[in-house]
Design a protein that fits this description.
about 550 residues; alpha+beta; DNA ligase i, domain 1; OB fold (Dihydrolipoamide Acetyltransferase, E2P); seven-stranded mixed beta sheet; seven-stranded antiparallel beta sheet; about 25% strand
């Protein structure tokens, strides 16, 4: 018989209750090591916060309306009671547990297999009604603690202080395996459950990179001053243009090709013109690259190309006016062989051996074998040339570097123009999530337009925990109107906000939005009358 789901819940609660990493390891190792094989697979996946492996494209697709209907029915609570609970917790799982309270479950107690099979049935069901019925039957058998975690998984908010890397460490400890071997198997298989099983049976070295199971992309560290490059690693350096497009990971095997975003979402349908050229390349491969458009040999600005984002069906007119290209800059797998451990110079040579045809492009690489002032002068020239070609700046890479999925290190550097900043005033605040659920940490802000204020963005990062706590007290005392999650506040708090770009947007009344905004600092020294204006925003945006 499958293991009790209540035991899994007790384990998750224990992990959630401690901040000590080694204690988390010990709790998980004891629990996972005692499970039978089928339960081990399920338990590991659920601890990672997902009902299915990363490579599995099934989704539960249960919206807030269906979830709240089932919770209200199970708990006998009113919508007002749910809203008040959410105000206290800002976490749907914790709200669900509070609403259920001491209400006893009905029927046989849940097992891990019950939960896993129901999630599979929900994903397979068509229509809101059948999905709601399956969830209703599952929660009828769940107590408050079990409901908490079922709802967390359904809503995608499984926050118990357990990163996947920590879970990998616990699996290694449970079965006496090498931590790096566990991490590599998880990355290649795209399934922490299968990884746990392989760790138990000592088969971690077997898998290669699984097709159509996207892995995390290797990240670059920003560099604003060129003299920083020589401090990061020794020459030689591989230098490429930095393109401002959509990061994409391409998987091709047999007669199938798929593109995935950096968030591991499938985006193939958004760029149908890339499918045939990629299928024309014989064999299998996994490519890391950037999707963008070119016009007269120059990259189309992201603010223009982004009109193709979010469209499930791209009209022929859009594809004709702004056809997509793929700049392929790394090769991660070829014909069943994972290439991640090879140095970049070897991966680049293999990439250039692929018979790629336009609109699939390989960027020009320059090798720079200089140091000191000579290196800075060369990089200045390369940076100016890249900007003249309409690109963001430079990528500077260590030719000896392996591919490190999901990691940001000093082996890849991105040299961009310094971020611009605006002085703005806070007009609204919102309760945060996770560790910031009890503070007002999301700030909506505005610029001046004559005598009026026009909202232009929202930011939630950049301030310290101490600053956020102090500002929470201030905003609570200076609230103009309380809308529950969101509060209008007196517009008297000036902040400095950094951003990457300004782009036209209907989201805000200013007509613009900041790309990647981040709070640089509080500006208590600056009066609201001196904040930046909408005219300045238009000037920066080039309009």
């Amino acid at each position: 018989m499958s293991a009790s789901f209540a035991d899994w819940v007790s384990t998750a609660d224990a992990v959630r209750a401690t901040a000590r990493k080694l204690e988390k390891h010990a709790i998980l190792a004891r629990y996972l090591g005692a499970l039978e094989d089928p339960d081990l697979v399920i338990a590991a996946r659920l601890l990672a916060g997902a009902p299915f492996p990363r490579r599995d494209e099934r989704i539960l697709s249960i919206g807030w309306s269906a979830l709240s209907d089932v919770l209200l029915e199970r708990s006998g609570t009113t919508g007002q009671g749910m809203a008040e609970s959410y105000q206290r917790h800002a976490d749907l799982g914790d709200v669900a547990a509070e609403l259920i309270g001491e209400s006893p479950p009905r029927g046989d107690r849940l097992t891990l297999a019950d939960v896993s099979e129901t999630f599979g049935a929900i994903a397979a069901a068509r229509g809101v009604g059948p999905k709601r019925d399956l969830l209703r039957a599952l929660l009828a058998r769940a107590d408050a603690g079990e409901t908490r975690y079922i709802v967390k998984v359904v809503s995608g908010e499984t926050r118990i202080g357990l990163r996947e890397g920590l879970l990998e460490e616990a699996i290694a400890r449970a079965f006496g395996r090498d931590r790096n071997g566990v991490g590599r198997a998880n990355m290649l298989t795209g399934d922490i459950g299968e990884t746990a099983l392989r760790a138990r049976h000592d088969t971690l070295a077997e898998p290669t990179l699984a097709h159509f199971a996207p892995i995390g992309v290797m990240l670059a560290t920003p560099v604003l001053q060129l003299d920083e490059v020589g401090k990061r690693f020794a020459p030689p350096y591989i230098v490429e243009d930095k393109y401002d497009g959509i990061r994409a990971q391409v998987h091709k095997a047999g007669e199938r090709v798929e593109l995935y975003s950096r968030t591991m979402d499938r985006i193939t349908g958004r760029y149908p013109e890339l499918v045939a050229p990629l299928l024309a390349v014989p064999g299998s491969f996994v490519i890391d690259g950037e999707v963008l458009a070119f016009s007269e040999g120059r990259a189309v600005p992201f603010t223009d190309f982004q009109t193709r984002l979010g469209r499930k069906v791209v009209a022929e007119e859009v594809r004709t006016r702004m056809p997509a290209s793929l700049v392929a800059f790394d090769l991660l797998e070829r014909d069943g062989r994972a290439l991640l451990e090879l140095p970049l110079s070897e991966r680049s040579a293999l990439l250039r051996d692929l018979p790629l045809q336009a609109p699939i492009l390989v960027p020009e690489q320059r090798t720079v074998d200089e140091s000191g002032d000579d290196l800075i002068r060369t990089l200045e020239q390369e940076f100016a040339s890249a900007r003249a070609r309409g690109n963001e700046g430079l990528m500077v890479k260590d030719p000896r570097s392996p591919y490190r999925p999901g990691r940001r290190g000093m082996e890849w550097l991105k040299v961009k123009r310094p971020l611009r900043t605006l002085d703005v005033v806070v007009t609204g605040v919102e309760w945060g999530h996770g560790k910031r659920r009890g503070v007002l940490s999301d700030y909506t802000f505005a610029v001046r337009d004559g005598d009026r204020l026009r909202n232009i963005g929202k930011a939630y990062s950049g301030l310290t925990d101490k600053e956020i706590a102090e500002m929470t007290e201030y905003f609570l005392a200076h609230t103009v109107r309380d809308h529950g999650r969101f509060r209008l506040v007196e517009p008297d708090t000036v902040i400095e906000v950094a951003f990457d770009q300004i782009q036209p947007s209907d989201r805000h009344e200013s007509g613009y939005a900041l790309r990647f905004p981040r709070i640089v600092r509080l500006r208590p020294d600056k009066p609201v009358r001196e904040i930046d204006t909408l005219d300045e925003v238009r000037r920066i945006a080039g309009r």
